[in-house]
Design a protein that fits this description.
The chain is an all-alpha fold. It has 2 domains: 81 residues; 280 residues, no CATH class. Helix content is 77%, strand content 0%. The protein is built from 18 helices and no strands. Helix 5 runs antiparallel to helix 14, helix 7 crosses helix 16 and helix 10 crosses helix 13. The longest helix has 44 residues. The N terminus is likely disordered.
Length: 405
């Protein structure tokens, strides 16, 4: 690059200013296909959980769909409700541009690449089960998953467990989960305790332009969801149970990896659809795909009910949080200005690291450890901590498993 070329920071600043100017100007009607294509591209090329956020921001602002401030406020709304934050942000942007159809276009576009890839990997995984090389590869993957859990606990600890009260809630959540209490009850208890524990804390209010949500369309979608649950209850109970389990996991999932303990509880502890080792394999495969980690649910769905099971799990792992977004957006400013809600949210977020830690302890207990596997787990943890792309860490784990384990 020559000295005359602009720096990366200059380009980002110019892009932000251009995006803000375009967003504040009268906007032409954006085609639904364009919304879908934009988020399909982001979902197909974005790896690394929260690292996807700058890429999504760049695509949105370059098109002038949101200003920098609107994007920040939209993220604030999406982080206060459960589900995949960037899935919600894709829906939020689409809702701002084209109402409910735009929200669906953004939502589906962002999630489709990961859903397709994790389902394909699930097919390959189950077809190759029983082969010696597959067993060795999965041994390597299980060590990588434990490394991922260590980093997830560290990440949640840094973000949400600052101070003695938050650390106390984190450790209490870990202990209660290991004792056998379900994550939904732990999350509910934390939400109720938050306004008391953090009664002396005041979060800054957020001012967001009111965005009406088409009530009729939302009710139609809700009716279709309820019709599916009613129909499967009588005709296909397995799909009914799968749908409800994924919905429950979605409702208590915050921050991406927050879905981990909920999925583990539903699939391993409660329904016993798979072993802890198989669950670890599926979560490792989810790291190979771009897009939201929550779509590791498709592995669970395929394991118990084939392709339709994968699609069912992929849809229902986001369905409740999508409706929550539709309900929250019109009242977002009031909700984010209500201090009891913000304190309840602080309580919930403080527990997530503890829940993930508890799952990590349970998985570590069920792992057949060796010196090589422990070394691989430590290496994966360090690599992820040093910001190595998770895809390469997972692939290295597979290779090490085949060669060494």
């Amino acid at each position: 690059m020559t000295s005359a070329a602009p720096t990366a920071s200059t380009e980002q600043t110019d892009a932000a200013q251009t995006g803000a100017a375009q967003a504040n100007a009268p906007a032409a009607r954006v085609a639904l296909a364009e919304i879908f294509r934009c988020f399909l591209r982001v979902g197909a090329t974005a790896y690394g959980g929260p690292a996807m956020m700058p890429l999504m921001r760049e695509h949105i602002m370059r098109r002038g769909w949101l200003s920098a401030e609107d994007f920040k406020l939209g993220m604030a709304v999406c982080q206060t409700i459960p589900g995949g934050t960037l899935m919600q942000m894709a829906a939020f942007t689409g809702l701002r541009l084209r109402g409910l159809p735009g929200a669906l276009a953004g939502f589906v576009g962002f999630g489709l690449p990961a859903l397709t890839l994790i389902t394909l990997l699930s097919v390959i995984y189950h077809a190759a089960q029983g082969l010696t090389v597959t067993a060795s590869a999965m041994q390597g993957l299980s060590a990588v998953v434990l490394g991922i859990i260590v980093l997830a606990v560290y990440d949640f600890w840094l973000k949400y467990a600052r101070g003695s009260r938050r650390v106390g809630l984190t450790l209490l959540a870990c202990g209660l989960f290991l004792y056998g209490l379900g994550p939904a009850w732990i999350i509910l208890g934390a939400a109720l305790a938050g306004p008391v524990v953090f009664r002396d804390e005041t979060a800054p209010p957020v001012s967001l332009e009111r965005m009406p949500v088409p009530l009729r369309g939302t009710l139609v979608l809700a009716a279709l969801a309820l019709a599916w649950l009613a129909g499967t209850y009588f005709l296909a109970p397995l799909y009914h149970d799968l749908s409800l389990s994924m919905a429950k996991a979605d409702l208590i999932a915050f921050g991406g990896y927050g879905v981990f303990p909920a999925l583990y509880h539903e699939t391993v502890d409660l329904h016993r659809w798979m072993s802890a080792a198989t669950f670890m394999d599926g979560m490792a495969l989810a790291q190979v795909t771009p897009g939201p980690f929550m779509l590791g649910a498709c592995f669970v769905g395929y394991h118990i009910a084939g392709l339709l099971g994968a699609l069912t799990a992929g849809v229902w792992i986001f369905t409740p949080s999508f409706f929550m977004l539709m309900l929250a957006v019109p009242f977002a400013s009031r909700l984010l200005a209500w201090q009891p809600f913000r304190r309840a949210l602080a309580g919930v977020l403080s527990t997530l690291g503890g829940l993930i830690l508890a799952v990590g302890i349970q998985l570590a207990r069920s792992t057949d450890w060796s010196l090589l596997k422990a070394a691989l787990c430590a290496a994966a943890t360090v690599a992820l901590w040093r910001k190595v792309d998770p895809v390469w860490v997972v692939l290295a784990g597979v290779g090490a498993g085949v060669l060494l384990l």
